[in-house]
């Protein structure tokens, strides 16, 4: 009879341990999913930072080109006005 009681107790403990293992495995899956999401967001942030730097540099270059074109246009207008005035 004592052996049967021990067997029942061990079976009950075994069942509790299996439930705990299942809960821990589920928690592990959740944590892995959160980690993967955090890594993805980190990569996205790094990509956006790089893209921002590239676009900022392109914007600076385009502004410089616009300024140079405006100066060249002004020089051409002055030359045109001088030619019109001397005609």
From TrEMBL:
<dbReference type="InterPro" id="IPR042800">
    <property type="entry name" value="Map3k7cl"/>
</dbReference>
<dbReference type="GO" id="GO:0005634">
    <property type="term" value="C:nucleus"/>
</dbReference>
<feature type="coiled-coil region">
    <location>
        <begin position="14"/>
        <end position="65"/>
    </location>
</feature>
<dbReference type="GO" id="GO:0005829">
    <property type="term" value="C:cytosol"/>
</dbReference>
<protein>
    <recommendedName>
        <fullName>MAP3K7 C-terminal like</fullName>
    </recommendedName>
</protein>
<keyword id="KW-0175">Coiled coil</keyword>
């Amino acid at each position: 009879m004592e052996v049967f009681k021990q067997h029942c107790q061990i079976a009950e403990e075994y069942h509790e341990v299996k439930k705990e293992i299942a809960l821990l495995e589920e928690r592990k899956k959740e944590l892995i999913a959160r980690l993967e999401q955090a890594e993805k967001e980190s990569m996205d942030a790094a990509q956006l930072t790089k893209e921002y730097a590239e676009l900022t540099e392109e914007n600076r270059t385009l502004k410089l080109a616009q300024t140079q074109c405006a100066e060249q246009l002004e020089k051409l207008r002055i030359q045109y006005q001088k030619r019109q005035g001397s005609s």
